[in-house]
Amino acid sequence: MEIAEHKTPARLRTLPSWLINQAAIRANRVTDQALADLGSRRHHFAMLAALEEFGPSSQADLGRCTAIDRSDVVAAIDALAEQGYVQRGPDPSDGRRNVITITAEGTGHLRRLGAVVAAAQDELLRSWSAAERDTLLDLLTRIVSKVP
Amino acid sequence: MEIAEHKTPARLRTLPSWLINQAAIRANRVTDQALADLGSRRHHFAMLAALEEFGPSSQADLGRCTAIDRSDVVAAIDALAEQGYVQRGPDPSDGRRNVITITAEGTGHLRRLGAVVAAAQDELLRSWSAAERDTLLDLLTRIVSKVP
DNA sequence: CACCATCGTTGGCAGAACCATCAATCTGAG
DNA sequence: CTCAGATTGATGGTTCTGCCAACGATGGTG
């Protein structure tokens, strides 16, 4: 008799913040799984991506450009350094800072991470056209880079 | 000399899952703040919205239609019952279930919550056209309601 | 010099998502 | 009818994330 319809209340189904959150849960699940298969997580990927694109950086800069709290950057760099993907050294020109440098192994690891992450995106957006993906990126970018 | 550019690495800036997550962080921040001002949180709003739309329901059904784990539904209903927004009673036709019913105070509270949540959406999507909002909802719905 | 900002680091917090388990109860196949 | 399996509410727990407060050390500025 009871057909399990799993119908979502309209109040939630049409609520942008709820939809964004549910989408994020799904998106994070697939990408986290992909990263975990290689023994990494989101923060690690973000750090390595920033280091490869911007070169050696301080932890504070890494945190700012990836929107990760300074205290969480410490833990991420700790793990990456222990895995040999990153090197941490003092900044000779500023005694407060560390200079984080990506290693050759780090670059290689980033390449592998990038591959599985890209595969995760394809799984998430399977059968989406390039135009639809662009539209999604544009809209989300407007939300993320809002200047109140 | 150093202009704080906060530039996001391209690898992240163009990554759907990263963008969705960042958007969710922002969206959750504004809506959580709005709900907290009235002493509630996301789970509470979802429960009340489901109860108003579908009428008295079991906790398992509430969890399914709002994508909240059964164990988390318990805590949410506990809080709502203590606040008098919901009434919990045994299901006479099924000894395993409870029947959760929204009270008059609950309906009133939901209305207030709905108002502040709507205001939060407007803050999040300030200066977005109706068409743009619809597009966003459509795209996100496709991600959320994917059947693998 | 005094003052304030910044940096790395530590420690901690709350919330969310999720999982395993349990006893009680219902359901359906035989 | 009986029994195996599924469902429900509940409890307890884990993990991760996004934060915040504070600290000592350092840098820059007046």
Automatic annotation (TrEMBL), chains A, B:
It comes from the Bacteria. Residues 13-145 form the HTH marR-type domain. One of its GO terms (biological process) is response to stress. GO terms for molecular function: DNA-binding transcription factor activity. This is MarR family transcriptional regulator.
